[in-house]
Amino acid sequence: MRNSFPVKLGGCFKGIASRIAAMLLLAAFLFAPAGTPARADGFGNCAGSNILLELRKKDPSRYQTMMDDAANVRNGHSIFWKIEKPGVKPSWLFGTIHSSDERVLKLPAEFRSAFDHINTLVLELKEISKPNTIAIELLKHPELTMLPAEKPLDHILPADETAQIAAALAKKGIPITSVLRMRPWFLYTSLLMCAPERNSNGGFVLDRQLAVQAETKGVDVEGLETPLEQFQAMADLPDDLTMKGLLQAFQLPYNMNDVTETLIALYLTGNSGLMKAFADDLSDEKTIEAVFNQRIITDRNEVMAKRIVPYLEKGNVMMAVGALHLPGDQGVVQLLRKQGYTLTAVN
After folding, report:
1. DSSP structure class, residue 182
2. Any idea what DSSP says for residue 146?
3. What is the dihedral of CA 21, 27, 33, 39, to 10 degrees?
4. How far apart are CA 343 and CA 33, in angstroms?
5. First and final C-alpha spacing in the chain
6. What single DSSP character describes residue 94?
7. Surface-to-core class of residue 112, CB atoms within 10 Å of its CB (0-12 exposed, 13-18 middle, 19+ buried)
């Protein structure tokens, strides 16, 4: 087992990072869903602190371990790749983060140079520029977001754990009675979302900004998944495990905004391996993490790497998906290499 964090950084924080990372980087929600519980905790203020900066000061050994782990992540040194194959025009792979933070939206010159000349943009969801379409699709499948009447939220975990969740929700101004029929993943995602003040691009997350810009230029926009497939992936997570994740999230010694700020800061380094190390190395709860990572990351990587091929065979394509899909032995970069493509890091 790895060395533990100091008390302030340890405890309940372990096992949470990868799930929060996945919610932020891979969440099906790229818009504020109707029906999201109202919050009375000022969560709309998205300012946070970089946890790793404190870790570097308080536990340099642990920090260095994370840096070493990041260095060993295959294909983890970039979020922007050139895709090549003999006889086909080059294409591009870009790792996004589903955020509207102004820093994230300031894309590097190398990316802009490639993006301005593509024929097709392929995102996780083609419908990302039309959030109402996504919302309507979700409304068609209430079973994905609503629990059966015979097993509401307070019947999933033991009474003592349910009481802790109820108390934590109450502190946020949310009576548990108001969300009893809500699937845990839906509640979890809603609570983790932060609604910053509208920025200069109208509040669009990066993925949506790319889609809108492509459509404005007359570039074809396609998707690798359907909204239903993304929602289904989240809904496939066992309710009891997701509820335990929610309980642990409430027990964090840091605000969720701090975790989000850390992930954004890591994203801005362009080092997806460091993002993966942060998400993975803080976890001691292997069962929950294995289920989550398999369904939300690995399974979807395989689908994306397969469905992108017809577009790559035409060339001059930009594939833009969540950054955590790129690195690792089962990441999209490696999967595309196995299919005969040459991928070279750009930044």
Report:
1. B
2. B
3. -10
4. 36
5. 34
6. E
7. exposed
Full strand arrangement of the beta sheet holding 220-225? 220-225, 120-125, 317-322, 88-96, 80-85, 342-345
Tokens 């520029």 belong to 129
Alpha helices in 93-238 (DSSP H): 102-105, 109-115, 131-139, 159-171, 184-192, 206-216, 227-235
Taking alpha carbons only, the member of 193, 229, 190 closest to residue 35 is 190
* DSSP assignment letter at 36: P
- Mean pLDDT confidence for 74-88: 96
Over residues 289-321, the pLDDT tens digits come to 788 889 989 999 999 999 999 999 999 999 999
322-337 burial, b for 16+ CB within 10 Å, e for fewer? bbbbbbbebbbbbbbe
State the maximum Cα–Cα separation within the chain, in Å, rounded to a whole number: 63
Instruction: List Cβ neighbours of 167 (8 Å cut-off, separation of 6 or more).
Output: none
Judged by phi (left if over 0) then psi (alpha if -120 to 50, else beta), residue 198 lies in beta
Q: What angle do CA 23, 69, 279 make, to 5 degrees?
A: 10
Question: Bridge-partner residues for 80, per DSSP?
Answer: 94
Q: How far is CA 100 from the centre of its chain?
A: 13
How far apart CA 235 and CA 145 sit, in angstroms, is 7
Q: Please say whether the beta carbons of 318 and 59 come within 8 A.
A: no
DSSP 194: -
Q: How many CA atoms lie within 13 A of 320 on its CB side?
A: 27
> In the chain, pLDDT over 90 holds for what percent of residues?
55
Question: Which pTM value belongs to this model?
Answer: 0.85
- Note the pLDDT of residue 43: 38
pLDDT of residue 192: 65
CA 179, 46, 164: angle at the middle one, nearest 5?
35
Q: Tell me, what DSSP letter sits at residue 19?
A: H
Return d(Cα 25, Cα 98) in angstroms, integer.
5
Q: What angle do CA 304, 305, 307 make, to 5 degrees?
A: 65
* Angle, CA of 116, 207 and 252, to the nearest 5°: 145
